[in-house]
Amino acid sequence: MIENIGRNIKRLRERHHVTQEDLANVAEVQRDTISKIEQNKRNPSFDTLDRIARFFLMWHQ
After folding, report:
1. Model confidence over 2-50: pLDDT tens digits?
2. How far is CA 32 from CA 15, 27, 38, in A?
3. Residue 44 to residues 30, 49, 61, Cα–Cα distance (Å)
4. Which of 14, 16, 29, 44 could link 49 by a cystine bridge, Cβ 3.0 to 4.6 Å?
């Protein structure tokens, strides 16, 4: 399941027309970190994943 996190984050980000920079600001990380997460070169920390999840939950409410 962890191998799909980056792909899913990228899919959600693109679906909602959010840039990597915007998502990085929300997640309180560098844009390069988001890029590496989306490429499955880095796993997000729990805190980063929580901030990203909360951000995308806003779109569904």
Report:
1. 668 999 999 999 999 999 999 999 999 999 999 999 999 999 999 999 9
2. 20, 12, 10
3. 12, 6, 24
4. 44
Tokens linked to 12: 């959600």
Angle at 5 between CA 40 and CA 28, to 5 degrees: 85
pLDDT at 56 over 60: yes
Distance, CA of 58 to CA of 44 (rounded, Å): 20
Contacts of 56 (CB under 8 A, 6+ apart): 12, 16
Residue 26, token pair as written in the block: 């929300």
